[in-house]
Amino acid sequence: MAIEGTIQSAVKSDKAIIGYRESMKAMKSGGAKIVVVSNNIPDAMSAEIKHNAQAGGAELEVFQGSSKDLGTACGKPFPVSVLVIKS
Q: Rounded distance, CA 27 to CA 30, Å?
């Protein structure tokens, strides 16, 4: 997957924000370039993230894997439901 390489590069260069609350802050402030969500997040959370990503002018990508898979792609030992790649 091409998105996995982008995620790993952003995490290594410290341009990734991991976690729902911090990602929402970044989207609302307009500091988000790409928003990546796992495919198993709740619908209500997904709708809120989609709305804030559009309002902040960020691109929304759906990771084709669970939050555990997204956490592994980030090199983290815990599930990651959403992450933001900063502009």
A: 5
